[in-house]
Design a protein that fits this description.
By secondary structure, the protein is an alpha+beta fold. It has a single domain (30-147), classed as Jelly Rolls (Sandwich), CATH 2.60.120. The chain contains four helices and eight strands. A four-stranded antiparallel sheet has the order 1-8-3-6. A four-stranded antiparallel sheet has the order 2-7-4-5, with no helix packed on it. A hairpin with a 3-residue loop joins strand 4 (58-64) and strand 5 (68-75). Helix 3 packs across helix 4 (120-147). The chain is globular. It starts with a helix and ends in a 10-residue tail after the last helix.
Length: 157
């Protein structure tokens, strides 16, 4: 197993995955670095990659008309950045910017999707892991919303 395979296989997302599957994914990864304030992607742009963050932080943002950009979530070491690559139409639903210098393992979405199509067991393993990330983010969003104060009072009947 290569050094990249060992590092990637230890990441939360891929832990417990079969060694040959980790090796295959590792062969599709490249280690990248970005400076602070680097815009990784914008809403509506093609979702053509995803990252496993190795160091640093990125903020997921949403553009709210009349308000501006709001941070939805801050992601750091071990977190996955990018879910939209997996589901058609493969367009980003949010934007992302580096909050500090960031290093990550970057994966080309088309290559990973093709590998998942060629190997249904790999496709299932990847899909289940990304569904887990999506479910976790939805629960975290729900918790944040429950703590938020309403801007508009609730309607009374």
């Amino acid at each position: 197993m290569s050094e990249v395979s060992k590092i990637i296989g230890a990441e939360r997302l891929l832990r417990g995955m079969q060694a040959d599957q980790v090796t295959r994914l590792a062969s599709m990864a490249r280690h990248v670095s970005f400076p602070a304030r680097y815009r990784l992607f914008d809403e509506g742009a093609p979702a053509d990659r995803f990252w496993i963050i190795d160091a640093g932080e990125a903020a997921l943002e949403v553009l709210v008309p009349g308000v501006g950009r709001l941070i939805v979530e801050t992601l750091g070491r071990g977190d996955v950045l990018g879910l939209s690559w997996l589901v058609p139409p493969h367009q980003w639903k949010f934007a992302a910017v580096c909050r500090q210098p960031m290093q990550a393992f970057e994966f080309d979405a088309r290559t990973v999707r093709a590998a998942c199509d060629d190997d249904p067991a790999l496709g299932y393993a990847v899909t289940m892991r990304f569904l887990g990330v999506a479910a976790h983010r939805l629960q975290a969003t729900r918790a944040r919303l429950l703590q938020a104060r309403p801007v508009i009072p609730a309607a009374t009947n």
